[in-house]
Design goal:
Blueprint lengths: L5 E5 L2 E4 L2 H15 L9 H21 L3 E9 L2 E8 L24 H8 L1 E7 L5 E8 L9
Antiparallel strand pairs: 1-2, 2-3, 3-4, 4-6, 5-6
Length: 147
């Protein structure tokens, strides 16, 4: 990871410019909140979280006029992600059922995956223009219960 991709700004917030940097930051937040020995997180949940972070950032870069900010805030039972972009356009599939596209046409899998893996999805306009997409991804402890 290059230094310019991830520079901590404050707790939960990082200067993220790529999906890879978002994944690295989210992994660091999880590692800081879920102790590998006393309170281990379920690896499958972490993989889901990293996938959601990647898709949100990639969508902001590809479809949202660029990434304007990224936050990962821990809660007792998961991580809330907030991705800020420069576009006022709400993705067409944002509030859809999460159905995957019938055939592969090069895109269209991101939102269905986000809808399937995340909870509490909200999209709100930013005062300076653009929007914030906020989602919650649950993380269970290795015991199978919400942490």
């Amino acid at each position: 990871m290059r230094g310019e991709e991830l520079a901590p700004a404050r707790a939960g917030t990082a200067r993220v410019t790529t999906a890879a940097a978002a994944r690295a930051h989210v992994r660091a937040v999880v590692d800081a909140c879920w102790n590998a020995t006393a309170r281990p997180a379920v690896e499958r949940d972490i993989i889901d979280l990293l996938l959601v972070a990647s898709e949100l950032v990639a969508n902001a870069v590809r479809h949202g006029g660029g990434l304007a900010g990224f936050e990962a805030s821990p809660a007792a039972d998961g991580i809330r992600l907030a991705v800020h972009d420069h576009s006022d356009v709400v993705p067409e599939a944002a509030y859809g059922p999460g159905a995957l596209p019938a055939g592969h046409h090069g895109s269209g899998y991101g939102w269905p995956l986000i809808i399937r893996l995340a909870r509490d999805i909200s999209i709100s306009p930013r005062p300076s223009g653009g929007k914030t997409i906020s989602v919650f991804v649950p993380i269970r402890t290795d015991s199978g219960e919400a942490s």
